[in-house]
Amino acid sequence: MIAIMFDHFMQRAAAAGHRPARYRAGASLFRRGQSVSRIFFLAEGDVGLSRDGTGGEPLILHRHTGPAVVAEASLYAAAYHCDGVALTDCAVHAVPRRSVRRWLEGDAALAARWAAFLASQVQAARTRAELMTLKTVRARLDAWLLLSQPSALPERGRWRDLAAELGVTPEALYRELARRGVGRRA
């Protein structure tokens, strides 16, 4: 469903003259508290939605992999509730919020697909919240591997991002991966 809806939005964006911008890994798309003026459609790459944890460590609330709508709930908010950061080099369409709202208001079928998409995002958020209730790194990693798409560990250079997504320290994740024999040289 997301692919069909995403394609529909991209066709409208192209017709309105919107072109994708390139973001380098680590670049900010938006910051928590910033007024929402654009909705971000991720064509390729990964974007993380994050906040700082109580100890100042980054906590990834959600990881988007293109194609995706980034921070979709911001369509109905005055300000972003988290930071949006490129986790990899990305191509992103930044479409004015008023345009997206107009598209949805003028197309009942698109609005219905959007509502179904938002419902699926709520379900996914509940699954992530459940994952965060697990007490051990081992349990969180097992659940993440079971639930993730695709169900494989990211490459070694992205393990810190995975630790943030799991809500654990990088060192704790590295210890768990070493216990499993992951990353050992043959």
Biggest beta sheet summary: 4 strands, antiparallel
**On the 0-100 scale, what is the average pLDDT?**
88
Number of strands: 8
Estimate the global geometry from the Cα principal axes: elongated
Secondary-structure content class: alpha+beta
| SSE series | HEEEEEEEEHHHHH
Strand order of the largest sheet: 1-8-3-6
**Percentage of β-strand residues:** 15-25%
What fraction, in percent, of the residue positions are helical? Answer: 40-55%
N-to-C span: 42 Å
Radius of gyration: 18 Å
* SS summary, helix count: 6
> What are the low-pLDDT stretches, counting only 5+ consecutive residues below 50?
none
Quaternary structure annotation: single chain
Describe this structure in words.
This protein has 186 residues and is α+β, with helices and mostly antiparallel strands. The protein has six helices and eight strands, in the order H-E-E-E-E-E-E-E-E-H-H-H-H-H.
Summary, kept brief:
The protein has 186 residues and is α+β, with helices and mostly antiparallel strands. It is built from six helices and eight strands. The longest helix is centred in the middle third of the chain and has 25 residues, at 108-132.
Topology:
Blueprint: H1 2-15, E1 21-23, E2 28-30, E3 38-44, E4 46-52, E5 58-65, E6 68-70, E7 83-86, E8 90-96, H2 97-105, H3 108-132, H4 137-147, H5 159-166, H6 170-179
Antiparallel strand pairs: 1-8, 2-7, 3-6, 3-8, 4-5, 4-7
Helix pairs in contact: 5-6
